[in-house]
Structure formats: C-alpha cells, structure tokens
Specification:
By secondary structure, the chain is an all-alpha fold. It contains six helices and no strands. The chain has a domain of 57 residues.
Length: 163
C-alpha cells in the first residue's frame, strides 16, 4: 500500500492557501497511515510539512497586509469626503470601526485533523465546509470555542465518548 505524495506536498509547487492546506492534510494523512501499521514516517515528510507551514504563514501574512492597506485606503477616502452632520456621524462611526477593527487577519484553515482532535466526526465533512468555517472565524476568538460554535451551527456531530 505504498502511495506517492502528490505535488501539493512540495511548497514551491503551491500557489495559494488552498494548495498548501491540501498538501498539509495529505502529509498528515500519510503519517497517520504509517502510524497505524507501526511504520516510521520518513524525515522528508516532516521536512515538507515544515516548509508548507512556512509558506502558509507567508501567504496569510501577505493577505492580511493587503487587507490592512485597503482599510487605510478606505479611511483616507472617508477623510476627503466629509460634509453634512448625518454623513459626519456615519463617517465617524466608520472611522471608529476601522480604527478598532482595522487589523484584518484570516484564519488560514481548519483541517479535518483539527476537528478530529477536538472530538468531531469528520466522515461527512468536505473541504468547502471547512473553508466556510475558517472564513467565519475571527482572530480574537479562541479557535476551539469558535470551532465548537460553527460545528453546532453546521450540525457536525461529536464522537461519542470524546465530549
């Protein structure tokens, strides 16, 4: 049952967050397969995994910088067009909101392994649902509590005895 790792597991071949997360999930899957039959995983599995995690960090940092730039751009545009008192109230509340929440971070991804670790049944979960959950999470949330909330919302069952 020897299976080759795909190109997704090589960081330089991954062009976006989705490719990187698929590669990370694939490597973890192979490691679990080898652990089930009491075989050691080769060193290059972990080497590729660390490179993919670094690339994922770079990609998410780049995306957050772009969002921060856009927030600053919107704020400067708002400064140019202030006029009536009603518009001023709206603009001031927008400015306050941008000041308080201007730093935008995206949770890169939630993997099936994360959900299984927290005791959820991952058999019927697809990548689209995982992406939807990750997009709805805020950086200020505890990841586990946010996952619990969205798992309840989307009806992802807990595994008996892991609660």
């Amino acid at each position: 049952m020897k299976r080759e790792l795909s190109a997704y597991t090589i960081a330089r071949y991954c062009s976006d967050v989705t490719d990187v997360t698929h590669g990370i999930d694939e490597i973890w899957e192979r490691i679990r397969e080898r652990n089930r039959v009491n075989k050691r995983s080769p060193y290059y599995f972990y080497n590729r995994l660390s490179k993919l995690k670094k690339k994922l960090n770079k990609l998410t940092n780049k995306e957050s910088k772009v969002m921060n730039y856009r927030c600053r751009e919107i704020k400067s545009m708002i400064d140019k067009y202030e006029s009536t008192s009603d518009v001023n109230k709206l603009i001031n509340s927008l400015k306050r909101y941008i000041d308080e929440h201007g730093e935008i971070y995206e949770v890169a991804y939630i993997s099936k392994a994360d959900l299984a670790f927290w005791g959820y049944d991952t058999d019927k979960i697809n990548d689209e649902l995982l992406s939807r959950i990750a997009l709805k999470m805020d950086i200020g949330d505890s990841v586990q509590s946010a996952v619990e909330y969205w798992a309840r919302h989307y009806g992802i069952p807990k595994i008996e005895g892991k609660e």
